[in-house]
UniProtKB/TrEMBL annotation:
Residues involved in substrate binding: R111, N149, W315
Species, as recorded: Micromonospora chaiyaphumensis
Pfam family, one: Glyco_hydro_42
Catalytic residues, chain numbering: E150, E307
Ranges for domain Glycoside hydrolase family 42 N-terminal: 14-384
Keyword Flavoprotein on entry: no
Similarity field: Belongs to the glycosyl hydrolase 42 family.
Broad class of enzyme this protein falls into: hydrolase
Protein name per Swiss-Prot or TrEMBL: Beta-galactosidase
Sorted UniProt keywords: Glycosidase, Hydrolase, Metal-binding, Zinc
Molecular function (Gene Ontology), one example: metal ion binding
EC numbers, comma separated: 3.2.1.23
Length: 667
C-alpha cells in the first residue's frame, strides 16, 4: 500500500476552480492559507471541460490551477474526473444510459447518467484516466489520487440489456452451470427453472415478488460492477503514478447497496463521506456509528473524512443549518474515531447548479461569517492535533455488520416490514455511546479474538464459516449477544432448517419454532420490567438460562432473553425488540460481565473516545450538551497548552483533547 500520511492532519475540501473566474483563484489560495487548509480535491466533475470532444483534451486551466495551489503550499488530491460523463457521450452513445427496473431511461442533466456495465463508458473513462494521470503523475502538488466520486450513489443498479448480459456473465462465473444456478435460486418454486442462460435476466419489474435469491445476486453483481470501475481506474493509476489512491465511500445507514468491506483492498486509504440527517434529534450518534464502521472497513487503521458539511446541505426536504460550534464538534468527533483528515464539500459555495444552496468553507456571504471563522478555528485545532496522526482508536467491543445480511434482511415477502437491518445496529451502538464505550463495526469474518464483547444485530444471512468463528470466539472466553432474525438463512437466502435462529441455535442453546411479529403500535412487557415491540417468537430454552420472559402479549411465559455458558465464554440471545431503556440496561449488564470499561466516566451527553499509539494516548471529550461538563482526568495535558490536574472542565458545546500520562494499556 502507498503511504498517504502527511506531517499534519489533512484539512481541506473539494475545490472547483472551473466554476469561478481565474481572478478568484488567488483569493482562494490566500483564504485557504488563512484557514489552515493543506489539501484540496480537484477536478472531480470536470470531464466535460477536460475532454470537450472525444479524444480532444484541454488541460490549460487545470495546469494553472495546480501550479497556483502548489505555489501556495496547498496539496492536491487529484480526481480522475470520471464521476459524471459529459453530454457528448450520451449523445453519441445513448446505449450507455442506465435504465430502472421498469425500463425508464435515466437521461443526462444530473450526474452519473451511465450504465456501470457499459463497455463504451469503461473505454472512454479509462482513456480520460490515462490522459490525466499521464500529464500530472509528477506534478509536485499532487499527493493523492481520487477515483471517480461516490461510485454508485445514483446509478448503482441498471437493468438495461447491457447490464443483463453482464449479469449473466457474472452468474456463469459464480455458479459455473445452470444446474448450480437453479439450485441456488430455488427455481423449482413457481416454475422458474432455467434451461438456457439467455432466459436469465435482472430482477426487472414483475407481477409479484421476484425470486429472492435472484434479487440478492443482482445486488451482489451491482456492487461488484461499481467495484470493477474502481479497480479498472486503479490499475491505470498504479501503472502511471506513485501517489496513493482512494475513492470516497459513503458508509452510513443511508447507503445500502455497496459492499464496502469487499472494496477496502482496492484503495491505499479508506475515505468516507458523511452527512448529518436533519430529522435526527441526536445526529452525533449516527456520526459516531458511521465513523466506527469506516474504521472497521479500514481494518482499524486511520482513515480520511473526504466530505462532510460546514452547515446545511441542499438535498434533504428541510436543510437545517449547523448551530455555532457544531462544525467543530462534528469534525473532531470524526478525528476522535480514527480520521486523520477532515475535508468538506466544498471550498467555495457555488453560484449556480443543483448544489448552490449547499454550505461550504467560504459561504455566499464571504469570509466575514460565522462559518468561515469556525473553519479557521478548526484549522488551528487540527494543527495542534498533529501528533495524534497515525494512532488507533481503543475499542474492546465489536459489532458485526454485513452488507449482504442487510440486503437479505430487507427483501420483500418477510415476516414483518418493521424488522429493518439498521434498527438494532443503531440501538445497540447508541447504548454503547451513552455508556462511553467505543465499538469497532466489523465484518463477521474479522478476527474477533481481541474483543471482550461482540454484538450481533439482525445478522439474517450468515455463512457457515462466520457462524463457526463466532462459536470459537465464545468458547475461547468471549461474550456475545445475538438478536432476533439472525442466522436465519445461508448465503443463498435458503432457510436453515430445524428451528430458528438456524446458524446460531446450538451456540445459544435455544430453538424458535415460530415467529410472532407484533402489529403496528402493539407492545409487550417482560417480567423484568422491560417493554418491547415489533417482534416476539415462540422460543424454547434448550440448555440456555432464561433471564427474562414475556409477561403479556401473545406468548406469556415464553423466554425472551437467554444466556448460555459455552466453553470459557457466554452467548446471549434477545428474541424481541427492547425499548431504549431496556437496551441500555442490557448493554450495561453485558459490559459488566465482559469487563469492558468506558474511556472515562462522563456526564450524560458527553462523548469520550481514546486514541492510542504505543504507550501514548489521547482522550477526546466532546460536550454535546448546553451545560458545562466535569470529568475526572488525572495529570493530563491539554493539547494546545495547559493542564487539568484532577478535573477536566469542558464548556457547553465545546471539545477538549488531552494528552494522557504515559501508561501501559490496562489488561
Amino acid at each position: 500500500m502507498r503511504n498517504w500520511h502527511g506531517e499534519r492532519i489533512w484539512y481541506g475540501a473539494d475545490y472547483n476552480p472551473e466554476q469561478w473566474p481565474e481572478e478568484t483563484w488567488a483569493e482562494d489560495v490566500e483564504l485557504m492559507r488563512r484557514a489552515g487548509v493543506n489539501l484540496v480535491s480537484v477536478g472531480i466533475f470536470s470531464w466535460a471541460l477536460l475532454e470537450p470532444a472525444p479524444g480532444r483534451f484541454e488541460f490549460g486551466w487545470l495546469d494553472r490551477a495546480l501550479d497556483l495551489l502548489h505555489d501556495g503550499g496547498i496539496n492536491v488530491d487529484l480526481a480522475t474526473a470520471t464521476a459524471s460523463p459529459p453530454p457528448w457521450l450520451a449523445h453519441r452513445h445513448p446505449e450507455t444510459l442506465p435504465r430502472r427496473a421498469d425500463g425508464t431511461i435515466l437521461w443526462p442533466g444530473g450526474r452519473q447518467a451511465y450504465c456501470p456495465s457499459s463497455p463504451v463508458f469503461r473505454e472512454r473513462s479509462l482513456a480520460l484516466v490515462e490522459a490525466v494521470a499521464g500529464r500530472y503523475a509528477d506534478h509536485p502538488a499532487v499527493v493523492m489520487w481520487h477515483v471517480s466520486n461516490e461510485l454508485g450513489c445514483h446509478n448503482v443498479h441498471c437493468y438495461c440489456d447491457v447490464s443483463a448480459e453482464a449479469f449473466r456473465r457474472w452468474l456463469r462465473e459464480r455458479y459455473g452451470d445452470l444446474d448450480a444456478l437453479n439450485a441456488a435460486w430455488g427455481t423449482a418454486f413457481w416454475s422458474q427453472r432455467y434451461h438456457d442462460w439467455a432466459e436469465v435476466n435482472p430482477p426487472r419489474s414483475a407481477p409479484t415478488f421476484a425470486n429472492p435469491t435472484q434479487q440478492l445476486d443482482f445486488l451482489r453483481f451491482s456492487s461488484d460492477e461499481q467495484r470493477a470501475q474502481l479497480r479498472a481506474e486503479r490499475e491505470v493509476l498504479t501503472r502511471l503514478t506513485t501517489q496513493p489512491v482512494t475513492t470516497n465511500f459513503m458508509i452510513g445507514t443511508g447507503i445500502k447497496y455497496l459492499d464496502y468491506h469487499s472494496w477496502a483492498a482496492d484503495v491505499d486509504l479508506v475515505s468516507n463521506d458523511h452527512y448529518l440527517t436533519a430529522a435526527d434529534p441526536q445526529p452525533q450518534l449516527g456520526l459516531a456509528l458511521a465513523a466506527d464502521h469506516t474504521r472497521g472497513v479500514a481494518g482499524g487503521d486511520p482513515w480520511l473524512l473526504m466530505e462532510h458539511s460546514t452547515s446545511a446541505v441542499n438535498w434533504q426536504p428541510r436543510n437545517v443549518a449547523k448551530t455555532p460550534g457544531q462544525l467543530r464538534r462534528n469534525s473532531l468527533a470524526h478525528v476522535a474515531r480514527g480520521a486523520d483528515g477532515v475535508l468538506f464539500f466544498q471550498w467555495r459555495a457555488s453560484r449556480a447548479g443543483a448544489e448552490k444552496f449547499h454550505s461550504a468553507l467560504v459561504p455566499h456571504a464571504g469570509p466575514d461569517t460565522k462559518v468561515f471563522r469556525e473553519v479557521c478555528r478548526l484549522g488551528a485545532d487540527l494543527q495542534a492535533l498533529a501528533e495524534v496522526r497515525g494512532s488507533r482508536v481503543d475499542a474492546d467491543v465489536a459489532i458485526l455488520f454485513d452488507y449482504e445480511a442487510w440486503w437479505g434482511a430487507e427483501l420483500d415477502s418477510h415476516p414483518s416490514v418493521d424488522v429493518t437491518y439498521a434498527d438494532r445496529l443503531t440501538a445497540l451502538h447508541g447504548a454503547l455511546w451513552r455508556a462511553g464505550v467505543t465499538a469497532d463495526v466489523v465484518h463477521p469474518s474479522t478476527d474477533l479474538s481481541r474483543y471482550r464483547l461482540v454484538l450481533v444485530p439482525t445478522l439474517y444471512l450468515v455463512r457457515d464459516a462466520d457462524a463457526d468463528a463466532l462459536r470459537r470466539y465464545v468458547e475461547a472466553g468471549g461474550s456475545a449477544l445475538v438478536t432476533y432474525f439472525s442466522g436465519i438463512v445461508d448465503e443463498h437466502d435458503h432457510i436453515r432448517l430445524g428451528g430458528y435462529p438456524g446458524a446460531f441455535r446450538d451456540l445459544l442453546g435455544v430453538r424458535t419454532e415460530e415467529f410472532f411479529p407484533l402489529r403496528a403500535g402493539e407492545s409487550v412487557r417482560l417480567d423484568d420490567g422491560a417493554t418491547a415491540d415489533v417482534w416476539t417468537e415462540w422460543l424454547h430454552a434448550e440448555g440456555a438460562e432464561v433471564l427474562a420472559a414475556y409477561a403479556d402479549g401473545p406468548l406469556p411465559g415464553v423466554p425472551a432473553l437467554t444466556r448460555q455458558a459455552v466453553g470459557a465464554g457466554a452467548a446471549w440471545y434477545l428474541g424481541t425488540r427492547l425499548d431504549d431503556a431496556g437496551t441500555d440496561r442490557l448493554v450495561a449488564r453485558l459490559l459488566t460481565e465482559a469487563g469492558v470499561r468506558p474511556a472515562a466516566t462522563a456526564p450524560e451527553g458527553v462523548e469520550v473516545v481514546r486514541r492510542r499509539s504505543g504507550d501514548r494516548s489521547w482522550l477526546f471529550v466532546i460536550n454535546h450538551t448546553d451545560t458545562e461538563a466535569r470529568l475526572a482526568v488525572a495529570g493530563a495535558e491539554l493539547l494546545g497548552g495547559g493542564r487539568c490536574d484532577g478535573e477536566l472542565v469542558v464548556s457547553a458545546g465545546e471539545v477538549a483533547v488531552v494528552r494522557e500520562e504515559t501508561r501501559a494499556r490496562p489488561a
